Amino acid sequence: MSDPFFFGYGSLVNRATHAYPRAAQATVTGWARAWKKSRLRKVAFLTAVEAHGEEMDGLIAAVPGADWAALDIRERAYHRLPVAEIRHDHAPLPDIQIYRARPDHIDEAGDHVMLQSYIDVVLQGYLREFGPEGADRFLATTHGWDMPICADRADPVYPRHQDLTGAERDFVDDRLARLGVAYTDRRP
Asked: What is the pTM of this model?
């Protein structure tokens, strides 16, 4: 029996945040990324949303022995769904799962923020996996950049935060400025 795989499209693209084996670049069809407000906390979730005709790049990796427990704990506000259309360089894989925020956790009201420390991790992963063009695709194909960003880089809220190189930090800051995002000192 072969191991199942997950498709990561946010922090799981950054290999420094996990040790799952046999990771490889992949592109899923019929899904997009979106920032969503949560009933659970005042921090926005980055989630997969079904989106006919759209594609998103990410990373697949094996879940040895189908032991989903640790990954399910990490992604506890999400549930897993099978991926139907995906391109990758692995031999055919029978089981690839994607995490999507639980619908009962999404709340369109409230004063939510996105975390700079989380965005840094995600964009660092995309830069390292897909280069600047791939990181730009991430920004262009992610919906919901209208919430303020908590400026927590110096004192990170995100537990798996990573240090950025100077070039990575300059890239992230430049691209977020181009998006016209607002920053706040308000912490969740």
From this structure: 0.94
